[in-house]
Design brief:
Elements (H helix, E strand, L loop, with lengths): L1 H7 L11 H7 L4 E6 L9 H14 L6 E4 L11 H10 L4 E6 L5 H13 L4 E5 L20 H12 L20 E6 L6 H16 L4 E4 L5 H14 L5 E6 L3 H8 L10 H11 L6 H18 L3 E5 L4 H13 L4 H8 L11 E3 L6 E5 L1 H5 L3 H10 L2 H14 L4 H16 L1 H19 L17 H4 L25 H10 L24 H6 L4 H4 L1
Parallel strand pairs: 1-2, 1-8, 2-3, 3-4, 4-5, 5-6, 6-7, 7-8
Antiparallel strand pairs: 9-10
The structure holds iron/sulfur cluster (SF4).
Iron/sulfur cluster (SF4) binds next to helix 20.
Length: 533
């Protein structure tokens, strides 16, 4: 059944498909992407053959424009995306290759970029990635040498033909790659301290070269609408693709339990899914129709396409596309009122539009009130005293131009001239202080002033230095139960009216060669990322 439908489409074969980039940049086509989750084991395993067969069938469908291939999703080892990808591009099907930072360091990622560009891949979706959840004979160690923002910056440099660091200074320029770079935004978050940093990080990703955006799974039309309105408000003009994950009762339970970082199914949506799952077809028709309605909403709102995910068979995709095509032009407005599964007390940047139930363009009034000087004074009362002290110390000692900085510089220069003994002693004192105050891990390239004096090495499982990953659950880190450092940093900075600037700095790329050296001396002697930037 599945393949016979595909065969019908053979007359409009994959060879006639236009590239994903062309469709987004040169046409007004509403694109359809399908996510392919790679399998475990060699491709000849049953599961591998099943995914390959599905991928080949989808490649024959004229209405499916790009196939997007995951990179060890859920933090598990899966077969490399290139196995499916190479087969698909040889059939004329454009693919999007996911690249995450959890299993690769910057060199491996750069090497991957050159390999993909050389092998004829055109599109890369850059992400930090889920924290590893399993591995051979125990849990794998997450790499997180760089994050999604730095990855985008590095690939943008490669697209510009900028030579890697060790070649810089020579006149040599590299042959540019031509990778079409995508990024993810996790906009379906509950609290202001999660939503706003996600929006700031989106801006950072765009600044670092993202050319298209795909958002994270969510079932709230108002938040979908808000994303586009926020982008327009910030003057961002690039294509955004709406994520439509086709639920079933099992997936709904899984998302509801919070086991997939960043994916939210509310109590109400879970109850509805459970109810539908009791129907004779186990809710199949309902869930496909729900997805088709989400596609219609995405089109109505102004997204440039949809990104279909889920455990589906070929006819399911066909059915979703047929259902979506069969809706009336204005039906999406009613669907948008139906699909409003926000979390209780969920934060929205804009006020609701009372008529549509979607987003207006008026900024949230309560949010604006929380930013007044009086409200900031109130917020300052809950900021830890240690933070206030750290700010004062930074401003008097580590700000260039201050007397403190001049003294620190002099001491560091003297220590450097005097050799190892004095350097070791000063570094020892610094480290002892910073272990007690910040749980410092001695990286030597300190990001404390960037993250409101919270250490990403010791308190962020993914060492995120350019904004939060997408994995928070109700403000808590996806790994363990502590608050996300970026949510905490947002609240500290907001008390001083500085939260909006939390990522307004050049991209931070930690220099590994500074590990085990004095971060203070590196700051005074301009060896760390602050001065390099
Ligand atoms: S602390 Fe925040 S940014 Fe770091 S891994 Fe946890 S959720 Fe992600």
């Amino acid at each position: 059944m599945a393949l016979s439908s595909a065969r019908n489409a053979l007359s409009l074969g994959a060879w006639q498909k236009q590239s994903f980039r062309f469709l987004l940049q040169e046409t007004k086509t509403f694109v359809t992407c399908v996510e392919l989750v790679t399998s475990r084991g060699v491709i000849t395993e049953r599961s591998g053959r099943r995914v390959m067969e599905l991928a080949r069938a989808l490649a024959q469908h004229p209405g499916i424009h790009a196939l997007s291939i995951t990179d060890n999703p859920g933090g598990n080892a899966m077969i490399s995306s290139d196995i499916l990808g190479t087969d698909l591009i040889s059939r004329g099907q454009d693919v999007i290759i996911h690249l995450s930072c959890k299993d690769w360091n910057r060199n491996a990622l750069q090497s991957r970029g050159w390999q993909l560009a050389s092998a004829g891949f055109n599109n890369v979706l850059a992400m930090s990635g889920d924290y590893p959840t399993d591995g051979y004979r125990g849990l794998a160690t997450g790499v997180f040498d760089i994050d999604s923002v730095a990855l985008l910056r590095m690939f943008s440099d490669m697209n510009a033909g900028i030579a890697p660091a060790h070649d810089q200074g020579s006149a040599h320029r590299m042959e540019p790659t031509h990778l079409f770079l995508g990024a993810v935004v996790n906009n379906h978050k509950r609290y202001e301290r999660e939503v706003m940093p996600q929006y700031f990080k989106l801006a950072k990703k765009i600044e670092c070269g993202a050319q298209f955006i795909i958002n994270q799974i969510g079932y709230d039309s108002r938040k979908q609408d808000e994303l586009l309105k926020y982008m327009a408000f910030r003057g961002f003009d690039l294509p955004v693709i709406a994520n439509v994950f086709v639920l079933g009762a099992t997936a709904a339970r899984y998302f509801h339990s919070g086991k997939i970082p960043g994916c939210v199914v509310t109590d109400d949506l879970l109850a509805l899914s459970e109810k539908q799952a009791k129907s004779p077809d186990k809710g199949k028709r309902f869930f496909l129709e729900l997805a088709a309605k989400q596609c219609a909403i995405a089109k109505g709102l102004g997204f440039r396409g949809v990104y279909l995910g889920g455990h589906l068979k070929y006819p399911d995709y066909e059915q979703i596309l047929q259902l979506a095509a069969g809706f009336g032009e204005r039906d999406w407005k009613e669907f948008a009122k139906e699909i409003r599964f926000g979390l209780p007390d969920e934060f929205y940047f804009f006020e609701p539009d009372p008529e549509t139930g979607l987003s207006s363009t008026e900024i949230n009034r309560a949010y604006l009130c929380s930013k007044t000087p009086e409200a900031q004074e109130e917020l300052k009362r809950s900021v830890p005293l240690s933070y206030k002290i750290n700010r004062a110390v930074h401003d008097t000692v580590f700000e260039e131009g201050t007397t403190g900085f001049a003294i620190g510089k002099k001491i560091s220069e003297t220590a450097e001239r005097s050799g190892q003994g004095m350097q070791r002693m000063l570094h020892g004192i610094e480290h002892a202080i910073k272990i007690v105050t910040f749980d410092c891990r001695d990286c030597g390239d300190c990001s404390l002033p960037d993250i409101a004096y919270l250490c990403p090495e010791s308190q962020c499982a993914k060492n995120q230095r350019n904004g939060p990953c997408g994995g928070t659950r109700q403000g808590k880190c996806e790994v363990g139960e502590k608050e996300c450092i970026w949510a905490l940093a947002y609240e500290r900075l907001k008390a001083y009216g500085e939260e909006g600037k939390m990522l307004e700095r050049p991209v931070v790329v930690k220099d590994g060669k500074l590990r085990g050296t004095s971060a203070w001396a590196n700051a005074f002697l301009k060896k760390d990322h602050h001065s390099k930037n």
